[in-house]
């Protein structure tokens, strides 16, 4: 029976639809493949750049550590004999036993050296000696096999030893190469991708497969690649260009990203991933679609069924790869950009704001609690976004960075939406096993409703610029709107950061001391708090409020904090010889400093260096930093107490903790925040709270210090409550060391 019009038209129509589907599918797949490939290349470059930065940070930390130790070798009382140098080197080695340093060598200008193995050696011909004797930092990148240590490959860090600005020798540290790479993510993407390090000659320095270590990358590439590809790769590496390249390795197509290690310009960090790993299914699908099209007549029914099923399945896979974040299952940056462009292009007179959220110290949270815990937090943020911004566009764009395109009518709606998000988020529990007070920051960019629309990435950067201005502020609900003032502030912060580095180099920082007064012993001095001051050659004394927040954002706070601690140790050592009686000096440690892995080793080293009785030292930590990781903080405090150092909780009453934590944290001193006095005259609640805290602290055998004391009424109230110590402008402002010494001397005479 011949087909009728009634039956043939649906067949023709179905065929047209099917063929059209395949044509459009091919275009769609090609476009998606391009997006995925660009995504993969961008991520690969980021992985290479991140690995490079981790390696550079490790190297800088090691060089900084060596510079710290050079002061040991330039003391005025140091006898110029090998046995004395050896003793000093052994002290250094003991303090660094948890690091990758296995040997230290001091080399005289003549080239004669002595090391911690008690060997005398001649090193005048070593490259690192030639460079450092000229006043340069140097890292030996030409691995010397005779420098090996117990079968392990090593490199050598070296710095000049200066006295009064003159190079008197070289301090070299022999370092295990495998420790240099401990923190590198050598493998990624479920083992499909991996990273390694080569030098300019192509020699593989570090590789996850030990069989490849020491081999030449260019020689391996010659097997499967044309000379032009290898020559191009060499040129880019020698010119220090961060680039991508497609090569064959062992017969497999690979995409590699390489990044120059600026500190070691002879070393390159390379990450590699199979080319088209995410696109293989798409390529197969296109072939199958072509074959099925050609067999349309014979296998039409089966073809339709297959196409429907396969299309749905592959379309979902493709979509998820291109547009969905794999941890939180919400939009990624690509989808957010696409949806935002589409919506804003036809917004008319509608108003939109771009809002960003991120977690303060997220990197520290990942390192402390693990990445599974960090992923759990990210999922909770995503769930909160779904709940509070369900009618808007939101996405996770990277790491702990989330963005929202929010529609509003009045500006107050934006702030209210952000506050609602915070309230919802802080109500949610991360885990029952770990208690941590998370703090989020938010930045808001109100998108101008005119023709001059910035691109999405620029708008995101504006929002995060605003968020960065409030980093470090200890409050749950914190957000900032982007404006010209914030832009100017960020420019100023960059300037301050550069000036801080210069100030550290030129010794412009000074330690001031604010006395602590015994209220129970005739207002006599009972110690002091050490406070940093910047003596600028043009601007005079710069308040810490101007530079400390910048230092905390840039990790310079660690260098500043350790400078203050050493100055205090040096001063206490001097006072112990000059005065018949001295009292403890407290030093503030920020959250960043508290979580440094070598903190205890550094403190031990300083105590030994200045032959100091630890009972004169007091460490102040803030309430918020103490409650970040309770288990870790308790461990650190117990180690400090084991050394004989008292620990006080500063700014008590400003965080989110309860008084019950006083019994869980083994502190010796509670320091009441000055904010209790803000409404002292009018608010009886402040007085009652202070009185209760003092009574509770004393019942726990804790010493109570009240800061911010400015009036006689404050003093009388504290005496009535039985507070032990007071500190504030009523007694004294922070003063230079010589003025405090005079007060201390007069105090003892009285």
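^ structure tokens above, recovered residues below v
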């Amino acid at each position: 029976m011949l087909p009728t019009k009634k039956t043939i038209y649906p067949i023709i129509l179905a065929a047209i639809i099917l063929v059209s589907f395949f044509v459009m599918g091919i275009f769609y797949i090609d476009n998606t493949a391009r997006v995925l490939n660009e995504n993969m290349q961008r991520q690969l470059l980021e992985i290479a750049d991140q690995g490079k930065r981790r390696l550079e940070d490790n190297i800088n930390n090691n060089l900084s550590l060596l510079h710290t130790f050079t002061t040991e070798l330039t003391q005025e009382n140091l006898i110029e004999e090998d046995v004395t140098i050896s003793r000093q080197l052994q002290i250094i080695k003991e303090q660094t036993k948890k690091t990758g340093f296995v040997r230290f060598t001091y080399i005289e200008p003549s080239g004669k050296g002595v090391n911690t193995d008690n060997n005398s050696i001649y090193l005048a011909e070593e490259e690192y000696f030639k460079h450092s004797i000229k006043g340069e930092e140097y890292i030996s990148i030409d691995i010397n096999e005779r420098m090996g240590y117990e079968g392990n490959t090593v490199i050598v860090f070296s710095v000049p030893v200066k006295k009064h600005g003159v190079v008197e020798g070289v301090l070299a540290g022999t370092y295990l190469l495998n420790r240099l790479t401990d923190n590198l993510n050598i493998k990624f993407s479920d083992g499909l991708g991996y990273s390694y390090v080569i030098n300019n000659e192509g020699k593989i320095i570090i590789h996850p497969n030990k069989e490849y270590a020491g081999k030449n990358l260019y020689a391996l590439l010659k097997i499967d690649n044309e000379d032009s590809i290898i020559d191009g790769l060499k040129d880019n590496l020698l010119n220090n260009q961060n680039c991508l390249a497609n090569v064959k390795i062992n017969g497999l197509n690979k995409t590699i990203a390489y990044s120059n290690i600026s500190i070691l310009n002879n070393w390159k960090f390379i990450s590699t991933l199979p080319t088209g790993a995410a696109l293989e299914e798409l390529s197969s699908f296109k072939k199958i679609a072509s074959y099925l099209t050609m067999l349309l007549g014979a296998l039409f029914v089966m073809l339709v069924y297959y196409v429907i099923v396969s299309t749905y399945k592959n379309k979902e896979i493709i979509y998820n790869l291109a547009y969905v974040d794999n941890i939180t299952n919400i939009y990624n940056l690509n989808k957010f950009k696409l949806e935002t462009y589409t919506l804003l292009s036809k917004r008319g007179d509608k108003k939109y704001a771009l809002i960003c959220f991120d977690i303060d110290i997220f990197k520290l949270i990942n390192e402390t609690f693990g990445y599974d815990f960090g992923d759990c937090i990210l999922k909770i943020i995503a769930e909160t976004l779904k709940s509070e911004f369900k009618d808007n566009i939101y996405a996770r764009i990277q790491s702990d960075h989330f963005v929202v395109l929010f529609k509003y009518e009045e500006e107050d709606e934006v702030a209210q939406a952000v506050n609602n998000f915070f309230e919802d988020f802080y109500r949610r529990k991360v885990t029952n096993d770990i208690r941590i007070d998370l703090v989020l920051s938010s930045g808001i960019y109100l998108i101008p409703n005119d023709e001059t629309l910035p691109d999405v990435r620029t708008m995101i950067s504006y929002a995060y610029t605003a968020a960065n201005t409030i980093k470090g502020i200890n409050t749950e609900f914190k957000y900032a709107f982007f404006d010209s003032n914030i832009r100017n502030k960020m420019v100023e912060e960059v300037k301050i950061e550069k000036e801080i580095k210069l100030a550290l180099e030129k010794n412009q920082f000074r330690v001031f001391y604010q006395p602590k007064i015994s209220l129970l012993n005739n207002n006599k001095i009972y110690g002091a708090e050490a406070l940093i001051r910047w003596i600028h050659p043009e601007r005079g004394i710069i308040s810490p409020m101007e530079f400390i927040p910048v230092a905390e954002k840039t990790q310079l706070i660690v260098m500043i904090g350790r400078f203050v601690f050493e100055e205090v140790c040096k001063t206490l050592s001097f006072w112990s010889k000059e005065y018949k009686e001295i009292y403890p000096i407290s030093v503030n440690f920020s959250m960043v400093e508290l979580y440094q892995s070598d903190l205890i080793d550094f403190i031990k080293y300083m105590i030994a260096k200045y032959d100091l009785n630890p009972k004169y030292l007091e460490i102040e930590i803030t309430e918020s930093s103490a409650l970040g990781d309770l288990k870790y903080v308790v461990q650190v405090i117990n180690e400090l107490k084991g050394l004989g150092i008292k620990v006080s909780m500063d700014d008590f009453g400003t965080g989110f903790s309860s008084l019950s934590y006083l019994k869980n944290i083994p502190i010796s001193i509670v320091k009441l925040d000055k904010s209790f006095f803000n409404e002292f005259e009018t608010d009886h609640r402040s007085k009652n709270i202070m009185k209760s805290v003092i009574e509770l602290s004393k019942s726990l055998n804790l010493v109570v210090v009240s800061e911010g004391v400015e009036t006689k009424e404050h003093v009388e109230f504290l005496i009535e409550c039985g507070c032990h110590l007071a500190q504030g402008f009523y007694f004294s402002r922070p003063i230079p060391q010589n003025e405090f010494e005079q007060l201390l001397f007069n105090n003892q005479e009285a």
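The two ends are 125 Å apart (CA to CA).
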